[in-house]
Structure formats: C-alpha cells, structure tokens
Amino acid sequence: xxxxxxxxxxxxxxxxxxxxxxxxxxxxxxxxxxxxxxxxxxxxxxxx
Length: 48
Known about the structure:
By secondary structure, the protein is mostly helical. The chain has one domain (2-47). The chain has helices at residues 2-33, 36-47. The radius of gyration is 18 Å and the shape is elongated.
C-alpha cells in the first residue's frame, strides 16, 4: 500500500513535470504579456 502511494505520487509528479515543461514557456509568456493592468482590463471586459 505504502509502495503504491509512493509510485502513484512519483507518476503524478512526472506528469506534472512534463506538463510544466510544455506549458512553462507559454505560461511565462502569457504572464508577462498579461501584466496586472491587462488582467484588470480583461476581467473588466469579461464581467461587462
């Protein structure tokens, strides 16, 4: 049981790392592109 949990956590971590490697650059780009000011404007657009 203990071994299974460790294995499951390891597998999940690997998936997260892979997803992070793929999404990392995109997320960073998006983050810098959408500065707080832009996010506020975006939120304003969505809610209106």
